[in-house]
Amino acid sequence: MEQIKKKGRPSLNGSPMTAAERKQRQREKLAGAGAKTFSIVISSKTAEILERYCEITGTSRLEHISSLAEQAITEWAAKRNKLTNGESKND
User: Fold this and answer.
1) How many whole angstroms separate alpha carbon 1 and alpha carbon 77?
2) Is 60 part of any domain?
């Protein structure tokens, strides 16, 4: 016999989990997968641009912010390597 999935919030010890409990479970799951959690604050204008970009490209905010962070860090590391290898900023 097929079991019917209950609707509503997932339960923990027989009672529905609170939003804080669900968020904590999500953080633990991500940490177990080796992910790190960061909170950021952005301006309303930046948030609007980000939301629009995500709508147009079909990407999530997380995907886009992660991509931007990786790109910025890669560029920073390349510049840093140039500077530490004796090249000037103007090269």
Assistant:
1) 58
2) yes
